[in-house]
Every structure is written in C-alpha cells, then in structure tokens.
Amino acid sequence: MRNFNYSTPTQIFFGKDQINVLSEQIRIFGGSRVLLVYGGGSIKRIGLYDKVLEILKTNDLSLFELGGIDPNPRIESVRQGIKICRDNNLDFVLAVGGGSSIDCAKLIAAGFYYESDPWNLMIGKAKCEKTLPLGSILTLSATGSEMDNFSVISNLEAHQKIGLGNAVLVPKFSILDPTYTYSVPKKQTAAGTADIMSHTIENYFTVVKGAYLQSRLAEGILKTCIQYAPIALEDPENYEARANLMWSSSLAINGLLSYGKERNWSCHPMEHELSAYYDITHGEGLAILTPYWMEYVLNDATVEQFKDYGINVWGLKPNEDPYIIAQQAITKTREFFVSLGLPSTLRDVNIGEENLKVMAKAATKKGTIGEFRPLTTEDVYNIYKSAL
Ligand code: NZQ
Ligand code: ZN
Fold first, then answer.
1. Is 133 left (phi over 0), alpha (psi -120 to 50) or beta?
2. Ligand 2 centroid distance, CA of 28 (Å)
3. Is the ipTM of this complex over 0.95?
4. What's the distance, CA 250 to chain centroid?
5. Does the C-beta of 100 come closer than 6 Å to ligand 1?
6. What is the pTM of this model?
7. Does the C-beta of 71 come closer than 6 Å to ligand 1?
8. Which residue, by CA, sits nearest to atom 36 of ligand 1?
C-alpha cells in the first residue's frame, strides 16, 4: 500500500428531511447572498426548488439564480455564474442537482477569485487558489461530485471535456436525501449506476500490492450497485435502494477506495473524449467502454485480479484456469449493464468510425493513460474500434 494523507472534509447530511440544516450550514460558512445553481428544471418538478426558496427566504438569505445547466456542463455557464456573483457581491454558491450542476458550481466558486477566463483553470494555465464557499443538495446518484474535489467542464466548441482536481473544490457540505432521487428516470438511474461502478472499477484494478482493505471495500460497493440498481429501476421510490446507491456514489470517489493506490484512471479519459465529441451521457459511455477495456487489458499480469473480481463480486465458482473466470466476469459485467437498459456499443449511441483516431490522440495527449495497464494512443484506438 502506498503512503497517503486521508482527508474528506465535506460534511454529509444523509437521509430524509436533512434539508432542514440548509440555512444553518450556509450561515456557518459565512453565506448570506447565495447563488443557486441548477439544471433544466427537474428540481422544480419535484418541489425541491420551492422548498429551497422558502428556506432561504424564511432565514433572510438573499437568492440569485443560475438555472439551465446542461448535462456535460459548459464553460459558458461558468462564465455566466461568475458574472452574477461579481455583479451582486455574492458570498455563497449552492448547487442543487446532479453532477453537472455541482461541477459547474465548483468552477464558478473558484473562478470568482480568478481575474481571467475560468477555462484557463481547466487547461492548467492557472491554478485554483481559493473559492467561494460551496454547498450541494444532491438529486442524482452518480458522479460523487458531492464529496470529491473534481469539476468536469466541457468546451464543446474546442471539443474538449476536462476534469480538474484540486482540494479547494471540495464542497463544504452536501445534503443527501435519497427521496430526491425517486424521480430520476430509468436512463439516468442506469447511467448513474454505471458511473459509480466505473469509479469503483478504476480504483479496484491496481498495480499496487497489499491494498487489501481498499479492494474489499470496492467489492462491497460493486455488489451494492448490482443488488440495488435493478430494484431502483423496478421500484423508483424504494428508499433502501435509492439510499444505498446514493451513499455508494459518494464513497466510490471520495478517496476511500483510492487512497494508498495509484490514481491514474483508464476508462474515464477515454469516455471524456466521447462526451466532448458527441455530448453523450457519461455513464452510458462508460458502460460501453468498460467491458472492452477489460478484455483489452486482460493478460498474464492482470488475470489474477480479474479472478478476484469474478469470484468476489460476481460470485463465480473458483476454477483452475483463471482466464475462464476472468472472461465470465467480463461477460457478466456487460450483461449487467445491458440488463439495466444501457447501450453496449458505440454505434448504439450513434458514434461511428469518423473520429476514433482523433479522440484516441486527444485522450493520450499528455502520454499514456492508466497505470493498471498503461494505454498508448494506439491502444485507445484499438479499444474504441473494438467497441464499435
Ligand atoms: O437538468 P435537470 O433538469 O436537473 O435534469 C437532469 C439531467 O437531465 C436529470 N436529473 C437529475 N436529478 C434528477 C433528474 N431528473 C429527475 N429527477 C431528479 N432528481 O438527470 C440528467 C443528468 O444530470 P447530470 O447532472 O448531468 O448527471 P450526472 O450527475 O451524471 O453528471 C454528469 C456530469 O458529471 C461529470 C460527467 O462527466 C458529466 O459531465 N462527472 C463528474 C465527476 C466529478 N465531479 O467527480 C466525475 C465523473 O466521473 C464525471 O466525469
Ligand atoms: Zn465518472
């Protein structure tokens, strides 16, 4: 196990009616003039928007709004949010929604203190030093943005989707009430589950020896997704299912599984190029790529980990030939995603051969990706091609 410094500073308020802490938490972090960041209207349909407004009004907190954040949030929305904060002297950013609203809010909070264009922060031209305090109310179990230090923003004009990690981006608090996810449609429930599982799988398959505990925790999260995603699809208001998926979403990426291991992922950089070029749903891209990536990286050096994965996660019977278990585990993974209604090929989401080379090049522009089995441009191209 590698050395690490453990810190997950986000306060989590988990469960029904935890929204009651909202105004107190905003005040604790010095907020009185709040920017509310949200998506295309789902929070209005479930009554959460009205509830937040009522709480802020009753507690004399001033409210300004930035709605309409797109899935795969755009840098244009970030610029708009920073302007609203500056023009109105705001001191707190509250995201209400899924990962897209939270990620957008994070870069608004950081861009407020950066005098030039916030895209510079994404491309590494400048570093986030400080942010406005930020809180979130989560409505979709998927990205883990509610408890991590990443913001993923798209610049579709430039065909770029970039994930930025910086400790200052972590929310001060997040309210996780599983009942807010009752209304999440089947497609997003399935895609969110694939995202949680992908974060876990990225952390699970490792070159680091001896991080036994992290691997068993990862298996627990994968089994939780396998157990509860079908229930949430069948019975959207099943509290137990929604609660287990929600907590899995946060724990898969908040460091718990990755501390002590490498943190250089494989499927995510490949998927971000698909979203950057085709604006597809992140979790769907991951559901397509993950089994093909698994097939590609399976070899004598990695087969034992696939064996653990097959036996401990999918309950496969031990076999003298680890390759048999590995292949069965990969098939199970693909079949599970398909059973949730997720696509299994690039053509299923209208991606053809046209941009595979340029996307493979973009995914590897800083060098090989993934430490588990480092992938070159050619490897990424081969994986995309096999996924067609
Ligand atoms: O926009 P609204 O109307 O809110 O509708 C959204 C959107 O259409 C809907 N939705 C959310 N909560 C709902 C709901 N519909 C009904 N009821 C509810 N309670 O779901 C759709 C998708 O929302 P979005 O926020 O885009 O989804 P998600 O949470 O999956 O976020 C995806 C974005 O996060 C990035 C992805 O790349 C993508 O840009 N990621 C962020 C990460 C991070 N910050 O750590 C890591 C991830 O790997 C990922 O890259
Ligand atoms: Zn993801």
1. beta
2. 31
3. yes
4. 9
5. yes
6. 0.98
7. yes
8. 282
DSSP conformation class of 257: T
Which domains, from first to last, does the chain contain? 11-180 (3.40.50.1970), 185-386 (1.20.1090.10)
pLDDT tens digits, one per residue of 238-283: 999 999 999 999 999 999 999 999 888 999 999 999 999 999 999 9
Residues around the ion ligand 2 (C-beta < 5 A): 195
CB of 72 sitting under 6 A from ligand 1: yes
pLDDT, tens digit (0-9, with 9 covering 90-100), for 86-126: 999 999 999 999 999 999 999 999 999 999 999 999 999 99
Distance CA 285, CA 275 (A): 8
φ and ψ at 38, to 5 degrees?
Answer: -150, 175
Determine the Cα angle at 379 with ends 373 and 385, to 5°.
130
Residue 178, number of CB atoms within 10 A of its CB = 23
Cα 355 to its chain centre, rounded Å, is 24
Rounded-to-integer distance, Cα 332 and Cα 226, Å: 11
Between CA 291 and CA 331 the distance in angstroms is 8
What's the distance, CA 170 to chain centroid? Answer: 13
Say yes or no: CB of residue 178 within 6 Å of ligand 1.
Answer: no
Give the whole-angstrom CA distance, residue 6 versus residue 213: 15
For residues 273 and 182, the answer to whether their CB atoms sit within 8 Å is no
41 in contact with ligand 1, CB cutoff 6 A: yes
Residues facing residue 176 across a β-bridge:
14
